[in-house]
Specification:
By secondary structure, the chain is of the alpha/beta class. The chain has 2 domains: 2-39 and 289-417, Lyase, Ornithine Decarboxylase, Chain A, domain 1, CATH 2.40.37.10; 108-283, Alanine racemase (TIM Barrel, Alpha-Beta Barrel). The longest helix is centred in the middle third of the chain and has 19 residues, at 214-232. It has 12 helices and 22 strands. The strands form 3 sheets. Strands 5, 15, 16, 17, 18, 19, 20, 21 and 22 form a 9-stranded mixed beta sheet that branches. 29% of the residues lie in helices and 26% in strands. The structure holds pyridoxal-5'-phosphate. The site of pyridoxal-5'-phosphate (PLP) has 16 residues, from helix 10.
Length: 424
């Protein structure tokens, strides 16, 4: 078996791409395209790496579901004992729908509404990660109206450079996220003085697709400095939440493995005397990104003077990352032809935008009617998919060994029109 880099459960067998034991072309024929395919074993292996790194510690892994919030994916993590990091009332409903324990749900985000706060208080979530001083005041009011006490952690902006794409870097001063390092003590004192808040922790999240342990080590140092300062004021922090952000291998990226990273980080935590604290993590991409691929059918080959285009039936509405971040995804023929010469193509979708490309200058041996797989599309693809051009969203299947579960039916045009009204 010949596994793809970073994706041990997606591999070549008999000249065909397989997800676990199932050939990708078979899935495409049975379920249609575009189709997202996820490997359950791959998700569980990614989770196991974190668990190995945290072995023997009090720790909660709260999957940041914005990476991929499909219920079938959430179910895998809920059954494996994960909590969830949510950023909206909608995501709270998803967590509850898969049976998450409210205590293991934490609520992040800079713009929580009063209604979302009330909903989360009612079900008794584990922690609000508060991102501004104004939010502390509002949360105190909302909790007071319900006669409840809200558990809070303050998200600190440690002002470290995660050295990632500007749109996914969140821990620098110019970002909208978190409370500035210098304001943190002030915010904690205020939180501790409010009657309907109970301080339980501190958190940070410095960015996404981080491929080096350096920014994590820097952020940890800064957070621990703050923990010491805050506790010197008599405010006890039960947990320290280091957020998510660990990168995956898209194109020869070499992020540290989760277990190696955490072994290194825990060494620092111990050395600084904070090894007894409960640790929270909010990984998203690193749990699901390499577990998924998107299968698409080749519609047309369009040779040109300057470029050849391979036009496929998946587009930027299904796979927004190239258009949004100029992201690179591997693209493979699901069953490369021995009878066609590999040709260099720009792989594009049918959407009427020049930004609608999936990969540039890719060598593929394909003909119309063949299937291609866009790799490492388990994170920030389906969860960001749109209906632009009135395209229905793709179906999703979860492969578990030799079995395939449909976890999302293909959307129908009727679904799209349902909430719209003609003017009368
Ligand atoms: C997006 C996000 C995460 C997850 O980030 P990944 O890079 O997908 O691991 C975790 N915490 C917060 C607050 C986030 O906004």
């Amino acid at each position: 078996m010949n596994a793809l880099p970073g994706q041990p459960h997606i591999h070549w067998r008999d000249g065909e791409l397989h997800v676990e034991q199932v050939p990708v072309t078979q899935l495409a024929r049975e379920h249609g395209t575009p189709l997202f395919v996820y490997s359950k074993a791959s998700m569980l292996a990614a989770l196991a790496a974190y668990r190995r790194g945290l072995e023997g510690r009090r720790a909660r892994i709260c999957y940041a579901m914005k990476a991929n919030s499909s219920l079938g994916v959430l179910q895998v993590f809920a059954q494996a004992g994960c909590g969830f990091d949510i950023v909206s009332g909608g995501e709270l409903a998803r967590a509850l729908a898969v049976g998450a324990k409210p205590h293991d749900i934490i609520f992040s985000g800079v713009g929580k509404t009063r209604a979302e706060m009330a909903q989360a208080l009612q079900v008794g979530i584990g922690c609000f990660n508060v991102e501004s001083e104004a939010e502390l005041e509002v949360l105190d009011q909302v909790a007071g109206q319900q006669g409840r006490v809200a558990p809070v952690s303050i998200r600190v902006n440690p002002n470290v450079d995660a050295k990632t794409h500007p749109y996914i870097s969140t821990g620098l001063k110019g970002n909208k996220f978190g409370i500035a390092h210098e304001r943190t003590l002030h915010a904690y004192k205020r939180a501790a003085s409010l009657k309907h808040l109970r301080v339980v922790g501190i958190d940070c999240h410095i960015g996404s697709q981080i491929t080096d342990s350096g920014p994590y080590l820097d952020a940890m140092d800064r957070i621990l400095d703050l923990v010491a300062t805050i506790e010197a004021e008599g405010i006890r922090l039960q947990h320290i939440d280091f957020g998510g952000g660990l990168g995956i291998d898209y194109r020869g990226d070499r992020p540290p493995a989760a277990d190696a990273l955490w072994t290194e980080l825990l060494r620092k935590l111990d050395a600084r005397g904070f090894g007894d604290r409960e640790i929270l993590l909010e990984p998203g991409r690193s749990l699901v990104g390499n577990a998924g691929l998107c299968v698409s059918e080749v519609l047309y080959l369009k040779p040109g003077e300057q470029k050849n285009f391979c036009i496929v039936d998946a587009a930027m509405n299904d796979l927004p990352r190239p258009a949004m971040y100029e992201a690179w995804h591997g693209i493979e023929a699901a069953k490369p032809r021995s009878d066609a010469q590999p040709t260099t193509y720009d792989v594009v979708g049918p959407v009427c935008e020049s930004g609608d490309w999936l990969g540039r200058e890719r060598s593929l041996a394909v003909q119309p009617g063949d299937f291609i797989a866009v790799l490492s599309t388990g994170a920030y693809c389906m969860s960001m998919a749109s209906n632009y051009n009135t395209r229905t969203r793709a179906a999703e299947v979860l492969v578990d060994g030799g079995r395939t579960h449909v976890i999302r039916e293909r959307e129908r045009v009727e679904d799209l029109l349902r909430n719209e009204r003609l003017v009368d």
